[in-house]
Amino acid sequence: MNISIRIILSIFAILSCSSLIAQDGSTAYNFLNITNSAHLYGLGGVNISTVESDLTTTDQNPGLLGQEMDNQLTFNYMRYVGGSNFAGVRYGKAIASHGALAVGLQYFGYGSMKGYDELGNYTGNFSPKDIAITATYSYDFNDRLRGGATLKMLASNYEQYSAFAVATDLGINYYNPENDLSLSVVVANLGGQLKKFNESYDRLPIDVRLGWTQSFGTLPIRFSITAWNLTKWNLPYYTVGDGITDSDSEPVKKQSFATNLFRHLIFAADIVPSDKYYISLAYNHKVKTDMSAYHRTIISGFSIGAGLNVNRFAVGLAFAQPHTGATTFMVNLRVNINDFLN
After folding, report:
1. Domain tally for the chain?
2. Domain coverage including residue 235
3. SS3 call for 317
4. Smallest Cα–Cα separation from 37: which of 273, 278, 300?
5. CA–CA dist 103, 88 (Å, integer)
């Protein structure tokens, strides 16, 4: 095995063990787990192994960035729960003969909220927000193995409080084109706060993720399984009936081996008959069970997406409804600047 590959894999092993030890409490900055890719949102919200010449799919795995994304420019917008609106832009560029670089800006706005002091006096409205500035570099170790890193600078402003943090994602991908097999490992959100909100520091949502994507034969469907939240095995949740017939029942804690296992897994499929369009469908069991208290719909936990390449533009759309009061929608627009220069 190439010495550089051994070094990369050793680093991943050390970081994975470190994060498993460190991640035993609550975290902040959970907006880092919200993708800015409509394609990935349609694949369950977390996917690190879908190999495409689409800059947006590198959002959660810097090891997927490559020279085939040279001069791509992407825009994204998401209507999230509770009146939240997210938007951003990203640009990719090939570097030398084996590298690639991407820079991005992402804005997370949570709408207008009413402020009150400790005595309950109204102090006016405010608009909490987070901003992430990112820089990603990737390198092709050979024709099948690629690794990368993303540096994220995070600025937060919540009424009179502000904070600043730095995080890093490390990702590696193995892709076998003969079998259309993709395997990925990502250590996400390593880092911490440089400026805290108040008296205590908030932890970042450090995570270790594994991804598998593959198609079989001539069937134009790619199947994916993504394992995430691997820094903590126990992910209990509570059920309290349907809120009508069982309105007086006490919450019941669910924490069996099976529930823990499936709350770590996301199952997805990409229907890709050609390079002109795709349709994505996924099931995220953690989302469904997190909404188990009240108002969960039959499609809770499911997401669907679609994309279309038209001339010099590509458009991606995704939709999910975690519960009846939270319909989420995302749209991406992608252009290749090289198409306008030729």
Report:
1. 1
2. 3-341
3. strand
4. 278
5. 11
